Amino acid sequence: MDLGMKGRVALVAASSSGLGLAVAKAFASEGAHVSICGRDPVRLARAHAEVNAMGTGDVLSSPVDICDERAAAAWVRQTAEEFGSLDIVVTNTGGVPFGPVDSFSVADYREAVDGNLLPHVAITLAALPILKANGWGRMLMIASESIRQPHPESGLSSVARLGMLGHMKGLVHALGANGVTVNVLAPGFHRTPILDEQFGENVEEELAKVAARIPLGRIGDVAHFGALATFLASEQASYVTGTVLVADGGNTRGIG
């Protein structure tokens, strides 16, 4: 199936590893030009090489702290200037510490909002006039399954990410007439470096415990998540907007 992404310009935030890198590689494999960013120069250089090897499109890698709203907006403008266009915008952030809601201070919540909500707002607002002018575009915001089913052990994430839903719905109305779709991707457990760091030496044992609680009985594959994002950024998904698509192996039990 031709997804119509060849020659498109895609910007993927927090893409030097994990889910962001998987999305960037999937876009590149479809022939898109891809702009990636990260804070660690060594990891970013490694990601650049991996994305570049996936396809014939060009790759731009920039050291950016997306929590700095001015730097994030400048990166969006740089991408559009370098490639002469901007078609697909994927916002993404790092994670937050685990723990129940009553184990954190107000300062912790403020930091979580600054790091896990506001970067999505800053990047999408910077890209909005560019996509409007183009008359075509895709915005994808990567959140977490906790946006649909808050977990007792994920207090910060459940609170900080919920604001994305209101922002997404507002963008749907602001951009719909210009042919731009806006959706939220809500991943569950996928095998990413952050899980290895979190579980340490017992990672395989801990992941097996997590997998046992998931209806499909396994942890997600980041490549499959990248493929899902690619479809939502394609021509074929042109009538899908304003949705939250959960990719968690059936872990979210709620209806709606």
**Helix count?**
10
Shape: globular
CATH fold-level label: Rossmann fold
Total domains: 1
How large a portion of the residues is in β-strands, by DSSP E? Answer: 5-15%
SSE order, one letter for each helix or strand: EHEHEHEHHEHHEHHHE
Number of strands: 7
Q: What Rg is obtained from the alpha carbons, in whole angstroms? A: 17 Å
CATH class: Alpha Beta
The CATH architecture designation is: 3-Layer(aba) Sandwich
Main β sheet profile: 7 strands, parallel
Q: Would you identify the CATH H-level superfamily?
A: NAD(P)-binding Rossmann-like Domain
Highlighted features:
256 residues; alpha/beta; Rossmann fold; 7-stranded parallel beta sheet; 7 strands; globular
Helix/strand layout:
Blueprint: E1 9-12, H1 18-29, E2 33-38, H2 41-52, E3 59-63, H3 69-83, E4 88-91, H4 106-116, H5 118-134, E5 137-142, H6 155-160, H7 163-175, E6 180-187, H8 193-199, H9 203-213, H10 222-232, E7 244-247
Parallel strand pairs: 1-2, 1-4, 2-3, 4-5, 5-6, 6-7
Helix pairs in contact: 1-2, 1-10, 3-5, 8-9
Describe the model.
The protein is an alpha/beta fold. The chain has one domain: Rossmann fold, CATH 3.40.50.720. It is 45% helix and 14% strand. The chain is built from ten helices and seven strands. It has helices spanning 18-29, 41-52, 69-83, 106-116, 118-134, 155-160, 163-175, 193-199, 203-213, 222-232, and strands at residues 9-12, 33-38, 59-63, 88-91, 137-142, 180-187, 244-247. A seven-stranded parallel beta sheet has the order 3-2-1-4-5-6-7, sandwiched between helices. β1, α1 (18-29) and β2 (33-38) form a beta-alpha-beta unit. α1 (18-29) packs across α10 and α8 (193-199) crosses α9 (203-213). It is globular, with a radius of gyration of 17 Å. It starts with 8 loop residues before the first strand and ends in a 9-residue tail after the last strand. The mean pLDDT is 94.
